[in-house]
Amino acid sequence: MRTDEIASTHLGKKSAGSQSYDPSLLVAVPREENRKLYNIEKNNLPFLGCDVWHAYEFSALTQNGLPVTRLAKIVYDCGSEFIVESKSLKLYLNSFNMSRFGTSIKECLDICKRHIEHDLSEKLQTEVKLNFIENNSLKSQIFGDYKNLYDFVDENLIKIEKFKESPKVLQFELSQEKEYRLMFESLRSNCRVTHQPDFGDVYIYYKSEKHIKEESLIKYLTSFRSEYHFHEECCEMIFKRLSDLLGGAELMVCALYTRRGGIDISPLRYSKNCHADDFKKLVDLDNFTRAGVKQ
């Protein structure tokens, strides 16, 4: 079955979900089909990384009917064969809303954690880790020293005409080896099934003798506006194009997408030789990083 058919199990369809815990709602989507389009080999991935999900509205009940609400942070490796389809994850997590677990808040959360880690790990055939974070926790400050790409260009002079993914617009010049930390606040792509728009911020680190011209990078990232891909796929496409251009230099790409339906995703990809650890707080299960908000 093709990726779009699998992903369409819930997407684009009216669904009330379930009033009781229901792991059968989860849908696993294979990564391989899209990776083949960009010559990303299944057994020789050009990157490391993970997919980080924040579910802001997770809630369940204790046996006494006491509501328990937390932010659920979910992390799994990008080397997994599957991703979880976002609407299925939302419906699955919502199935906990009226379900009763444990005699105390702690016991309720412990049981929910075990269920979610087990169900997702089984469905995605990889280890999935989860942590519940208090709703009043302060968000982690990461990527604070990344410079906005718009600061490097004259908005009155730049002209953008490509709105389908266009790596040919990327340009570079040779320079001394240097570290670059850049962010783009206007990433926009579209769901490959529903065609609904998705917005996010992209953070790019690279260390190279090649300097990617910032104007060309803006043009390239803007070219995603009429693309139809899952968030994870967009992140990997950006990484692969920049990696090909830089010829094996240190590289990291992280996309912080904004919330939809109470859930956001922050896919992270970095080269095996990348020594920058800017993303550590993002991966740490104890940290809460608000996606789509400028750091």
Task: Annotate the secondary structure layout.
Layout: H1 3-7, E1 28-30, H2 32-37, E2 48-61, E3 67-77, E4 82-84, H3 86-94, H4 105-124, E5 128-133, E6 147-148, E7 172-190, E8 197-212, H5 214-222, H6 231-246, E9 250-257, E10 263-270, H7 280-283
Parallel strand pairs: 6-7
Antiparallel strand pairs: 1-4, 2-3, 2-10, 3-5, 7-8, 8-9, 9-10
Q: Which blocks of ≥5 consecutive residues have pLDDT under 50?
A: 291-295
- Under CATH at level 1, the class of the largest domain stands as Alpha Beta
The SS-based structural class is: alpha+beta
Largest pleated sheet: 8 strands, mixed
Number of helices: 7
Radius of gyration over C-alpha positions, nearest whole angstrom:
20 Å
Mean pLDDT: 88
Give the overall form: elongated
Number of domains: 2
User: How far is it from the N-terminal to the C-terminal residue, by CA?
Assistant: 41 Å
**Content of β-strand:** 25-35%
Q: Provide the CATH architecture of the largest domain.
A: 2-Layer Sandwich
Bin the helical content. Answer: 10-25%
What are the secondary-structure elements, in order, as H or E?
HEHEEEHHEEEEHHEEH
Adjacency order of strands in the biggest sheet = 5-3-2-10-9-8-7-6
Fill in the CATH topology of the largest domain. Answer: GTP Cyclohydrolase I, domain 2
Number of DSSP-assigned strands: 10
CATH superfamily of the largest domain: GTP cyclohydrolase I, C-terminal domain/NADPH-dependent 7-cyano-7-deazaguanine reductase, N-terminal domain
